């Protein structure tokens, strides 16, 4: 029986990932370079040592003001995000979960300040009973620690929870942790190779949460 749902954040609740990649493409184009989507997908939903700014300098084959470029990019990125809302259907899922008495958690490879600040701006923060981020674990996704901690925080067994994910790294983390998995890929994660999941939808508008929960009975 499903007693809780656990959301990813970036790309799932709030599509930071698509906006970030589009802005990176614009930045690379300014230097007559390209950031391949296949390369960038390896960074989505996890943390690695890859720097898009260092890679830009390598592709441009000339010395760049990396600190200045990074600072300007991040300012531009935040300005863009400030104008955006949550992905379609997210608020409906949260409202329905509350009405059904489900516990609601969040497991993100980003840090708490990033996640909480955006959730508060979007008016979604108070829906969550528990939020686990990179601040709470030694290893982020695809390691299962975030989902294990989120389920524990909700006082539920992993198999009593559904993980909602958009990335392959996130889905793998949830699967290893023993959760049920439903994915909602975005524009930049759509072509990723996912592990076996229960269901896949383009957005949360594709199926009401109440109907989805009934599929697990």
* Span between termini: 6 Å
Name given to the CATH architecture of the largest domain: 3-Layer(aba) Sandwich
Rg estimate, integer Å: 18 Å
H/E order of the elements?
A: EHHHHHEHEHEHEEH
Topology, number of strands: 6
Count of helical regions: 9
Question: Structural class of the secondary structure composition?
Answer: alpha/beta
Query: How many structural units, i.e. domains?
Result: 2
Share in β-strands:
5-15%
Largest sheet: 6 strands, parallel
Poorly predicted regions are: none
The name of the CATH superfamily of the largest domain reads: HAD superfamily/HAD-like
Return the CATH class of the largest domain. Alpha Beta
What is the average per-residue confidence, as pLDDT, rounded to a whole number? 95
Helix content class: 40-55%
Please state the overall shape, judged from the principal axes of the Cα atoms: elongated
Q: Which strand order spans the largest sheet, edge to edge or round the barrel? A: 3-2-1-4-5-6
Say what the CATH topology of the largest domain is.
Rossmann fold
